[in-house]
Write a structure and sequence with these properties.
Blueprint: E1 13-15, E2 46-50, H1 60-75, E3 78-81, H2 87-98, E4 103-108, H3 109-113, E5 123-127, H4 130-140, E6 143-146, H5 151-165, E7 172-176, H6 183-194, H7 200-203, E8 206-209, H8 212-219
Parallel strand pairs: 2-3, 2-6, 3-4, 4-5, 6-7, 7-8
Antiparallel strand pairs: 1-5
Amino acid sequence: MTPDIGHGHSHSHSQGHGHGPAARAATAYPAGAGPEGGPAGPALKSLCVFCGAGAGVRPTHVQLAARVGQACARRGIRVVYGAGGVGVMGALSDAVLAEGGSITGVIPQALMDREYGRHDLTELRIVGSMHERKALMHSLSGAFLALPGGYGTLEELFEITAWAQLRLHHKRIVLLDDGGFFNPLSRMLDHARDEGFLSDADRQLVQHAKSVDDALRLAALPPGPSAESPAVGPAQT
């Protein structure tokens, strides 16, 4: 699986379903194209957010997601996410829309048929599979942010990180929590490095922020090693 495939050419639909202030920013882009036209830079234009459809046991998770959505809307950063309307996903998207921001949801048709996607987003992309979903989210985004979530969130995080390790992209990847949710994961990544399964450079592919401002600052840093850099050796994969 590489990030340059699966552009939703057979099942993707751009749908501007925005209502209220957010509708002003509704724009349809060709499938596989993004509004930013390039990788993350000093002026981050789009941010992919991986997060849970559940709310978690602590209210701080949805509160943090709301602050991320609010901050992105106020800074003119388009949010790209999985199109859900409940849990952490719902808090994120509600906040973007409430602030009149721009948000693109990407969801497979099968999940849309099960009523897991919301229709009132600035833009809705419906694709044919989970693989197409992740590839399109990658192509639409200038950087990646993970908020608390479960298997789906972690799977998306690690696939996009593996692509970065293989130099298939050079966009920034950031974990964000304000209550230690990702501390065990950060320790696990340190352990993998210490055991020789990650190089120091590979470990630095995933940064850990404790505030929204810090997370957006890290996400907007200039790109890392270019996609033309040599791939990592077998010892680091």
